[in-house]
TrEMBL record:
This is Lysophospholipase L1-like esterase. Gene3D superfamilies: SGNH hydrolase. Transmembrane segments: none annotated. Residues 7-182 form the SGNH hydrolase-type esterase domain.
């Protein structure tokens, strides 16, 4: 049986910056699931530029499908728009609860460490890193409380992006195809764990 797999969130969830559609998180994770004997149909409901406040509309569209598994990648635009972490985290928690109530397993990838983005001035990086960590932690707590699986990639994969400019696309903000490979590889274990949890339930 094919698993309905919805991807919600922002431009990273959408795949902006990837050279080919097969390089996106959605495509790479679908391929990973298939390689583990789990056929999945991925549908992307993510919209570039989205903040956590935009998740409710995406959840509504996705729930009409409906998904058995959902991945949410969100937080970067909350950071750039200075949304208070408790506000963004609460909006994420609401989205997770709605998806769980609809019967979906949910994986959340909290805010990335934006201090590694090439155009961030060196003197600003400590402050940006601290802000990223605050939002990441608030999102992780809210997601777990609402019943989601948390993929700890936002801060832990940052070192790779800091070392290798090739992981960024030409705009020096979004991941390149190589960057999406790194992100998908970090997400894959949590996504497979969520599928296993659904099978057990």
């Amino acid at each position: 049986m094919t698993l309905n797999f919805a991807i919600l969130g922002d431009s990273i969830a959408y795949g902006q910056g990837a050279a080919r559609s097969t390089d996106t998180v959605a495509a790479r994770l679908s391929a990973d699931l298939a390689a583990h004997g789990i056929p999945a149909e991925a549908r992307v409901f993510a919209v570039p530029g989205s903040r956590s406040s935009d998740l409710a509309a995406q959840v509504s569209r996705a729930s009409a499908w409906p998904p058995a598994l959902t991945l949410i990648i969100v937080g970067a635009n909350d950071l750039t728009r200075f949304v208070p972490p408790p506000v963004a985290a609460a909006q994420l928690g609401d989205a997770v609860r709605a998806l769980r109530a609809a019967g979906a397993e949910v994986v959340v990838a909290p805010a990335p460490d934006l201090s590694v983005v090439p155009w961030v001035p060196a003197e600003m990086r400590p402050a940006v890193r601290a802000a990223s960590q605050l939002l990441h932690d608030a999102q992780a707590r809210a997601a777990v409380s609402a019943g989601a699986h948390v993929a700890e990639i936002g801060m832990t994969t940052a070192a790779g992006f800091a070392r290798d400019a090739g992981l960024f696309s030409a705009d020096r903000f979004h991941p390149s195809s190589a960057g999406y490979a790194v992100i998908a590889a970090a997400l894959a274990p949590a996504v497979r764990a969520a599928v296993s949890a659904r099978v057990r339930s």
